[in-house]
């Protein structure tokens, strides 16, 4: 099942807010619809929002019907600003938009149609390259997974969160495909339940054994010796190896350390932000309190109660055993090992 596809000038997105109950697609014909889909998590996961935003930029440019290069460039920058403002934490969003803008600026073409074609091809390339990157992450990562491993993961870093195959779930899929007989504990991931709704749904379709646990069961699960390793995705990785990922990830890393378990992060290069020295500089999205006070629209707290809803946290690099990228596995010290990934 595709998370997204480009169909005759339309971006078709699987509406992830409806899963697992309903498989529904939305047809985005303008960039505002794409922006709304990203903001409301109809499409979510760092690489997936990057690819969706790239197609959103194409839609915005197509709709404008620019008459010359200058008009087209101005429009592209304006649309990119709208899309970039939807979610602040995952760097893939800005990365994809900047890649498209840079492609336009670097082209000497003056014909708007030619420039638009260029943009479409670049958006396709981002999508295609992400799928390929995830396959490589899977191959590198599965070598770290022992036979019969019981793996804990958090949120959804699967096919749904990417252009396909997944990052953390890509590692799990590759280990499964290699015949390692792995099994998975999926943390439910409050408040929006990406683990319960999406990760279990994906793994069941692939016949990978999965057990759903609530987030507060992780310590007991590890304490009873029921987990062999943790693997998660990332929304942004700073130059020193600090990792922003779904809220709750940091807690799992602390627990993994306490129980002597490896804690792996799987992410493509498009998630690494060497411009930020440490995780302290990563902007953390705060979402509306209703996501905490309500469950599927039903109140689970007294009316008017104050609630805090940071969507991500930052795991310090010292708790990360290794980062599995599409160019190989890197280990501490991350400042050197991450920088070394570039130019190879
Ligand atoms: O708020 P979400 O659902 O977009 O958060 C997603 C995550 O935190 C994922 O773990 C991360 O984007 C990695 S996806 C390959």
UniProtKB/TrEMBL annotation:
User: One MF term in GO for this entry?
Assistant: S-methyl-5-thioribose-1-phosphate isomerase activity
Top enzyme class: isomerase
One GO biological-process annotation of the entry reads: L-methionine salvage from methylthioadenosine
Pathway listed for it is: Amino-acid biosynthesis; L-methionine biosynthesis via salvage pathway; L-methionine from S-methyl-5-thio-alpha-D-ribose 1-phosphate: step 1/6
User: In this UniProt entry, which residues are annotated as the site Transition state stabilizer?
Assistant: 155
The protein's matches in SUPFAM superfamilies, at most eight in alphabetical order, are given as: NagB/RpiA/CoA transferase-like
User: Which residues are recorded as binding substrate?
Assistant: 44-46, 87, 194, 245-246
Enumerate the active-site residues: 235 (proton donor)
Alphabetized Gene3D superfamilies for the sequence: translation initiation factor eif-2b, domain 1, Translation initiation factor eif-2b, domain 2
Q: Which InterPro entries match?
A: IF-2B-related (IPR000649), IF-M1Pi (IPR005251), IF_2B-like_C (IPR042529), Initiation_fac_2B_a/b/d (IPR011559), M1Pi_N (IPR027363), NagB/RpiA_transferase-like (IPR037171)
Q: Which UniProt keywords apply?
A: Amino-acid biosynthesis, Isomerase, Methionine biosynthesis
Give the reaction(s) catalysed.
Answer: 5-(methylsulfanyl)-alpha-D-ribose 1-phosphate = 5-(methylsulfanyl)-D-ribulose 1-phosphate
Main function: Catalyzes the interconversion of methylthioribose-1-phosphate (MTR-1-P) into methylthioribulose-1-phosphate (MTRu-1-P).
> Which family is this protein grouped under?
Belongs to the EIF-2B alpha/beta/delta subunits family. MtnA subfamily.
This chain's protein is named: Methylthioribose-1-phosphate isomerase
In which organism is this protein found? Answer: Desulfofundulus thermosubterraneus DSM 16057
Organism phylogeny: Bacteria, Bacillati, Bacillota, Clostridia, Eubacteriales
């Amino acid at each position: 099942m595709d998370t997204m596809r480009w169909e005759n000038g339309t971006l078709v997105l699987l509406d992830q807010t409806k899963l697992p109950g309903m498989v529904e697609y939305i047809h985005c014909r303008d960039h505002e619809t794409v922006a709304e889909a990203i903001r409301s998590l109809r499409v979510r996961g760092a690489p997936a929002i990057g690819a969706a935003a790239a197609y959103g930029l194409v839609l915005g440019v197509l709709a404008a019907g620019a008459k010359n290069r200058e008009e087209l460039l101005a429009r592209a920058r304006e649309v990119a600003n709208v899309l970039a403002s939807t979610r602040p934490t995952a760097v893939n969003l800005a990365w994809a938009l900047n890649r498209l803008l840079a492609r336009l600026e670097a082209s000497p073409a003056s014909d708007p149609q030619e420039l638009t074609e260029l943009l479409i091809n670049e958006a396709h390339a981002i999508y295609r390259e992400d799928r390929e990157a995830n396959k490589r992450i899977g191959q590198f990562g599965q070598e770290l997974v022992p036979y019969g491993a019981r793996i804990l993961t958090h949120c959804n870093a699967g096919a749904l969160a990417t252009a396909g195959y997944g990052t953390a779930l890509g590692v799990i899929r590759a280990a499964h495909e290699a015949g390692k007989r792995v099994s998975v504990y999926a943390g439910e991931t409050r408040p929006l339940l990406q683990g319960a709704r999406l990760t279990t749904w994906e793994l069941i379709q692939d016949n990978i054994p999965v057990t759903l646990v609530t987030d507060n069961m992780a310590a007991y699960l590890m304490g009873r010796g029921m987990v062999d390793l943790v693997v998660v995705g990332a929304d942004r990785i700073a130059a020193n190896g600090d990792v922003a990922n779904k809220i709750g990830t940091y807690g799992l890393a602390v627990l993994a350390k306490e129980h002597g378990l490896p804690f792996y992060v799987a992410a493509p290069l498009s998630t690494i932000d060497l411009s930020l020295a440490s995780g302290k500089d990563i902007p953390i999205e705060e979402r509306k309190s209703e996501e905490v006070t309500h469950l599927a629209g039903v109140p689970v707290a007294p009316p008017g109660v104050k609630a805090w809803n940071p969507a991500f946290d930052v795991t310090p690099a010292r708790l990360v055993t290794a980062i599995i990228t599409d160019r190989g596995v890197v280990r501490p010290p991350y400042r050197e090992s991450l920088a070394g990934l570039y130019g190879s």
